[in-house]
Structures are given as structure tokens and as C-alpha cells.
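Figure 2 data, in text form.
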Amino acid sequence: MSVGEPGRNLRAALCLLLATAMLTGGGVAAAQAAIAPLPTGSQVSYQLGGAYPPEVGVGIVIRDRTEIPATGRYNICYVNAFQTQPGQLRWWKQKHPKLLLRKKGVLVVDGQWNEVVLDISTGPKRRALTRVVGRWITGCARAGFAAVEFDNLDSYYRSRGQLNRADSLAMARLLVKRAHAVSLAAGQKNASELGHRGRTIAKFDFAIAEECERYRECDAYTSVYGDRVIEIEYTDYSRSVFDRACAARGSRISVVLRDRLLRPAGSPGHWAQAC
């Protein structure tokens, strides 16, 4: 069927508009806000145990996705994307029972934190989990966070042989893609053994490394992400570990000493110190 002169003119106008948008940086992709990179040389307040006013001099604040971002700081949204949060198992059983990892019918549990490992063993399950976690990522963006970190990337170590690194990398790639789609930077949480694959395959923008000085693996992060690394050490082992970390990297990256339970300021046992 002939389009006719009015139809041809409209189509030509639309094509011209699209071409102009692409040349000027417009269009769908350009409509998204630019992804703000992790600031370098900024102190970090690591607040996963509960939000509190950031310490003086802090430029980066990390809070759970259920909290409100801190005003005037670069805020990172914590998302437990590979395991269930404590107290949330009933919700998962009711809403997404097939996404809970099992071995011979028995749930696979991370005994240290009493969290059930999520099943990312197949493409369909990874895509289903991305739809669930994707809503949380969108919530982080709408709340005003600038970035997101996905915890328990290394859940394959606790999967009783049901998962492997390739599964986690494939899942991470989906999550990072979703984060970038809503203009959030995405952080690799631990899993130093991934090396450059965290950057080249999953497309992470920065890293958060817990206890990397304790286990002598910090170079595995800085060699990939440069100065865009946040290092967290804890008070339940020798203070000399934190001192070594500060001497080695404290002038280049953010190094923080925290109590293991990440208690809020003012709570008994709270400890937070930067180099």
C-alpha cells in the first residue's frame, strides 16, 4: 500500500529528528542521567547496620537499600543480590520458592549469616532473579543513590557445589546492566579471584573489598579498578592489619576499620575509623 505524500513527509521528519538527536547526544540513551563515578580520595562511612549522620569529612556513604541516602554525599545502595537477607526467607518461600538453591531437596544455607543461597544456576533462573532484584535497583535510583553494590557475589563458595564462578559472572552482568540502565554505578563486592573478569565481563565500575589486607589480596582489586576501591577491615582481628592497609594504600583509596556487626554510631560496640 502506498504511504502517500503526508506519510512520507512525516516519516522523513521523524528520521531527521532521530538523526539530530543521535548527533547531539539525545535519544533514549542520552535521556538517562550520566553515571557518576565513585569519587577517589573520599572518606567512607559504611553504615549497613543502620543509618546515622555521617562523620565529619565523609564523602561516600554506604547504606542498605531500605534506608534514605545521606544528603550531600555520594551514596551507595547495598543490595543482597545472591542470598536472602536475614528474616526474609519466608517472603522468598511465598513469592519465589524456585529461586532458592537446594541440594537434594534441602535448602543451601550460608551458616555464618543464616542466609539461603539464591539459585543462579541457569539462564531462566538468572533472568527471573534479575526481575526481582531489578525492582530493588530501580528503587535505589529513585531514592537518590548514585551507585549500588551487590553482596555475596562469591556465594558459589557456599553453594555446596551447586554453583560456580561462571554462574555468578553471568548473574552479575545482568545486574550491572540493569543498574547502568537507571544511571547507577555498580560495585563488585569481594570475589578477588574474578580478577579482570569482574570489569571486562560483568562490567563493574568499582570494588568494595572486605578484609583484603587480612588475606593479602588487595592488589587483585586495585590492579583492575585503580583508585576506585573501598577497603573495609574489621576490629575482631589484629589492629596491625588496618595499620598495614593504611600504610600501603591509605593515601590512594578509602580504607575503613569497622566493628564486625556494623553497629550505628552511639550503639555499644560501634567502631568506625578511617586512615
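Caption note: Helices lie at 5-23, 27-31, 89-95, 123-143, 165-181, 197-200, 219-225, 239-249.
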